[in-house]
Amino acid sequence: MLLQIFFSVLFGTLFLLLFIFRVVEPTYILLFNKPLYIHWYPFSKKLKLSQRQILENDFPFYTSLSSKKKMYFEHRVNEFIVKYDFIGKETVVTEQMRMLIAGTYVMLTFGMRNYLVTLFNKIIIYPSSYFSTVNLVHHKGEFNPQMKTIVFSWEDFLLGHQTSNDNVNLGLHEFSHVLHFHCLKSNDPSAIVFFDEFNEVIKYYSDQLLNIELTQKDYFRMYAYENKFEFLSVILEHFFETPSLFKSFHPELYAHVATMINFKEELLK
């Protein structure tokens, strides 16, 4: 009898979850253009005191969060540094490197439910710009999907992180490429919203009239117009570094980007 009750409850719960994810959430996405929920961690993982101190001292986005959202942020950072390998080339990987790199990725994807992706599995860190044997030029950073690798010059990563108003942030730039590729291939709720809004965002690159509007106001640096991939990465750098200026210059584009990554002011509270 007890066994029958157990299986009845189990199947009822499974049916309810299936109904929620197959019927309720798609409807919710259509109505509100965001996933039904973002953060749910039954066994939330905490950072060590030394790791948390790095975020407190060197990561303003983290310090702006509410206590509850700090717990979510720490859990995601912990998951990130466990999942991906950090490899130093001509340098020793430090705790600061792990925290700031992981924090940058978590900040970019904080409004998305499925944030850990399989497009890369290792992060290679050089002390400064490095010579690429692939195209025989020096690089500051790159995302190589064939090798499943993210590469950073630590000098340039740190400069981008510490200089918060020049709209140049190497970590955000390269991780934006990762997010872009992931959402083009995935069908999870956050990726669906991202893809739909990306199609609106990219009109500002491909539509001649909208493009002229952007170039006339001269807010985005010229590298944004290299191709659609760089366009997305550059506007995301601007979105996080000078959001007030972005919103004042291009309010409609700003709204599309905010929806694309589900980033709202209330996200921080």
Short synopsis of the structure:
This protein is an alpha/beta fold and 269 residues long. It has one domain (49-268).
Describe this protein's structure.
It is a single chain. This protein is an alpha/beta fold. It is built from 13 helices and six strands. It has one domain (49-268). Helices cover 59% and strands 8% of the residues. A four-stranded mixed beta sheet has the order 1-2-6-5. Helix 5 crosses helix 6.
Helix-strand category: alpha/beta
**Radius of gyration from CA coordinates:** 20 Å
> What is the spatial order of strands in the main beta sheet?
1-2-6-5
Count the E strands. Answer: 6
β-sheet strand percentage: 5-15%
Helix content: 55-70%
Q: Catalogue the unreliable spans.
A: 6-12
Q: How confident overall, as mean pLDDT?
A: 88
Count of structural domains: 1
Distance between the termini: 47 Å
- Main sheet makeup: 4 strands, mixed
Note the overall shape.
globular
Summed up, the helix count is 13
Note the run of SSEs as H and E. HHHHEHEEEEEHHHHHHHH
Task: Write a concise keyword list for the protein shown above.
269 residues, alpha/beta, four-stranded mixed beta sheet, two-stranded antiparallel ribbon, 6 strands, 59% helix, 8% strand, globular, MtfA_N
